[in-house]
Design a protein that fits this description.
This protein has two domains: 158 residues, no CATH class; 95 residues, no CATH class. A hairpin with a 5-residue loop joins β8 and β9. It is built from ten helices and 13 strands. It is α+β, with helices and mostly antiparallel strands and 284 residues long. The strands form five sheets. Strands 7-6-5-8-9 form a five-stranded mixed β-sheet. Strands 1-4 form a two-stranded antiparallel sheet. α1 crosses α2, α4 packs across α5 and α7 packs across α9.
Length: 284
């Protein structure tokens, strides 16, 4: 207790809030940090607007750890002060953030029926290579922006790695940069359009989310050496993208007389069996 009081006095409440995820990442049971953060997703919400007589609308937004980090990373560049002709930007911070959120929505609506011209996330996360590949313990750490230092569970980092340019910054055992995520690792707009034609919609069984609103998922994850090729790709809506990563489902592209389609093995851990099979086939 004395230690907590000293941390609060010296570093403030922000550092105190970091203690729980840091302890779970380092000493918790396998996957405990992810489960802890997944529970928070139940509380994600956006209220209906409360509109006053002047027409101003007030919303209440509640986000989990991942949602907050992604939103803040996206808002950061758009909400920075923007001088005009040498004159200071006199908008207060809250107004700049509100304008930035509206700009993000406008961009998303305008791009709804087009290929993605930019990656979906502008979030830096550092993570050691072993944690990224195999880790159930440990965590990625956001860097840069208002939410720098936020811990992200390993499986969440793996899922984000499917569709974000600058995550993860992978660190080797000695702390040297092994790989810095770049656009060559991502599926292009042309590839996404081909997948819209091939899959039509989210490829998860029973889901009909239109292709334009899906992520492109590496069937063999990029972190496990999977190529950014169409025969290693599948469309998944955000909800099912999360499920596939968390439950470690395997999928494969099948081509036969009926055409090309996705088949999913919905047994928990089937992806790990796939990796074991691939490793067994590799030459010694």
């Amino acid at each position: 207790m004395e230690g907590l009081i000293r941390i609060a006095a010296e570093a403030g409440p922000r550092e105190c809030r970091k203690l729980r995820p840091e302890l779970l990442a380092k000493y918790g049971l396998d996957g405990e940090l992810r489960c802890d953060q997944d529970r928070l997703k139940r509380f994600v919400s956006l209220s209906q607007p409360m509109v006053d007589d002047a027409g101003l609308a007030e919303y209440r937004l509640t986000l989990d750890v991942e949602g907050r980090a992604v939103l803040e990373a996206a808002l950061g560049p758009l909400s920075a002060p923007q001088p005009v002709d040498g004159e200071r930007d006199l908008r207060p911070s809250d107004q700049r953030r509100g304008d930035a959120l509206v700009a993000l929505v406008r961009r998303a609506v305008a791009a709804a029926d087009k290929g993605p011209k930019h990656t979906k996330s502008q979030l830096f996360v550092t993570v050691d290579l072993e944690t990224l590949r195999n880790g159930l313990r440990g965590a990625g750490v956001t860097m840069g922006g208002a939410e720098s230092g936020t811990l992200i569970a390993p499986e969440t980092v793996r899922r984000l790695a499917c569709g974000a340019t600058i995550i993860p910054t992978v660190m080797g055992a000695a702390g040297a940069v092994v790989d810095l995520g770049t656009d060559v690792r991502l599926f292009t707009a042309a590839q996404a359009k081909r997948l819209w034609l091939r899959d039509g919609h989210c490829s998860y069984p029973g889901c009909t989310m239109p292709g334009q609103w899906t992520d492109v998922h590496h069937l063999v994850h990029w972190a496990d050496g999977g190529p950014t090729d169409l025969d290693n790709a599948a469309l998944l809506c955000e909800r099912h993208h999360t499920i596939v990563h968390n439950r470690r489902y395997a999928g494969r592209v099948v081509t036969d007389l009926d055409g090309t389609r996705l088949e999913w093995d919905l047994r928990v851990g089937s992806y790990d069996e796939l990796l074991a099979g691939l490793a067994a086939r590799e030459p010694a």
